[in-house]
Design a protein that fits this description.
- This protein is an all-alpha fold and about 160 residues long.
- Helices cover about 55% and strands about 0% of the residues.
- The chain contains nine helices and no strands.
- The radius of gyration is 17 Å and the shape is globular.
- The N and C termini lie far apart (about 60 Å).
- About 25% of the residues are buried.
- Bound molecules: protoporphyrin IX containing FE.
- Protoporphyrin IX containing FE binds next to helix 4, helix 5, helix 6 and helix 7.
Length: about 160
């Protein structure tokens, strides 16, 4: 009984759930202020987009596929070497879930800070978008929903790339 009460109290005070909690294999990063504003886009209203992406399971598949394709692409694979892909997958899933109206909080860094030492070029950005399109196609996300999502991400190019 006491155990049940303690458990209930702990659950009542628990913060909102994100797709995956901070993974024990993640590397520490420098301190930063957590805010959904770091996601660099406002979420879609309603659940139309979230359903078009097949909810959490669909977004998880798309992000994993996007990362897998990116690290396997000789044009951009080097950029991902020596970076914490456990954290990248987790925060990308949060960011996509937040923007698509899935109700997650984004706990990662802002787009400028996250990419500042990577020396990214516009061609790198285009390669990543290509992989995202392939991952959305594979998930059978309708074309119109794909384009609406890409339009939300497009302004991030200025923050992520150097030129
Ligand atoms: C719309 C485009 C993009 C979005 C939405 C995006 C999103 C993110 C997110 C959420 C993070 C993690 C932030 C954190 O750790 O707190 C991140 C980091 C990273 N991104 Fe991007 N990104 C984009 C473009 C790119 C491109 C074009 C590349 C390379 C081709 C790239 C490579 C990386 C790498 C290597 C990291 C890890 C940095 C580190 O460990 O310090 N990203 N990105």
């Amino acid at each position: 009984m006491l155990t049940a009460l303690i458990l209930a109290a702990a659950l009542a005070g628990a913060p909102p759930e994100n797709p995956s909690p901070t993974h024990p294999d993640e590397e520490a990063v420098d301190a930063y202020v957590q805010s959904n504003a770091n996601a660099a886009a406002t979420p879609f209203a309603g659940d139309e987009m979230w359903r078009a992406f097949h909810g959490r399971a669909g977004v998880d598949r798309i992000v994993d596929d996007l990362v897998d394709r990116s690290v396997a692409d000789p044009r951009i694979s080097e950029v991902f070497e020596a970076h914490d892909l456990v954290r990248l997958r987790r925060t990308l899933k949060e960011q996509f879930c937040y923007i698509l109206g899935g109700g997650c909080d984004y706990t990662g860094r802002d787009m400028t800070a996250a990419h500042k030492d990577l020396g990214l070029q516009n061609t790198d950005f285009n390669a990543l978008v290509e992989h995202l399109q392939a991952a959305m196609d594979r998930e059978k996300v309708p074309f119109r929903a794909q384009n609406r999502f890409l339009a939300k991400l497009a302004p991030m190019q200025r923050q992520a790339v150097e030129r």
